[in-house]
# Entry
Amino acid sequence: MIKVTFQTNKNHCRAYINPIFLPRNHLYNLKPFLLILNITAMYRCKRIMVGLDFTLLDKTLITYAGFVSTLIKAEKVYFVNIQKSLDIPPDLWSDFPEFHIPRDEQLRLKMREEVAANFGEQKNIEIDYIIAEGSPLKEMTHLARIKNIDLVIVGRKNELKGKGILPNQLMRSVPCCILFVPETARKRLNEIMVDVDFSDASKAALEVAYSLSEDNPDVTIHCQHIYHVPAGYYFNDKGKEEVNRVIKSYHVLQYNRFIDNLNMEGIHLNPIFTLDEEGDMVHVACNTAQKKGADLIVAGSNGKTTFDTFILGSFTEKIVQLNVSIPLLIVKQKQL
# Structure
């Protein structure tokens, strides 16, 4: 029998296992390993780009962008709109005199009005407006690169009209972190969900979650590790329960070694260990986020577990596709 308990201190919650219940050479070779992680190179998103499309979602997106900009102490925010073409047929000029004003100037003026109404007062943030033409995906990617953007914020539509850029295409394309904001997003950040597999991608996701939380003592970061029991180890009901306990204990040990090498002082971490019995980690992650009332999900863009050969890149793409109700932040290594 394996005993798992949790103990909370002022910084985080560790999971504890009584080692005398851990059998030797049972199922897996539980050799110790060392994770050397340095959180000093904290992710700081100072330059933000927000993609607008002049739909009803823009109001929510601008409001949430203002909320996030305050949290991360952003220095500059670009509001961007990409049109396939800015040309106006000359035949329309006689019937619509306002078309004599260049279309990009019209759109920029409308964008300024929307931002002024919804972004909130931001004294220390410089704001710029960009209207460009071409492929939305290519232009967003290009602008993110040449403007040295740290974070791209875009809307995630569910019920509202308008297709927008396909989320997974944009996630793969932009050279920085990307935040998907759904129609129902709220200006609240008390519960953050981070799915961890003890990889560098998990470390990066936790760093970003920490940077969002360090000035808010009410924030809880839920660190969920999803694991499974390999096929062939279930022989009967008693054996299934015992095997699950042994494997879970190994993951708890991994979590402790992982988290003890991170400087998460002042942040409440809540470890969650979830057995994936159906082989669908993404649904498990989304269900947990819903149950915890998560205000934000943070995921790394790639990674691999020691135990399950779990590719977080595939996981991340699936969670981008499945989750349409909770703001989702994808953490990517910035490419210059």
In short: Confidence is low (pLDDT under 50) at residues 1-11, 17-42, 303-312. The longest helix spans residues 237-260. The CA atoms of residues 201 and 267 lie 20 Å apart.
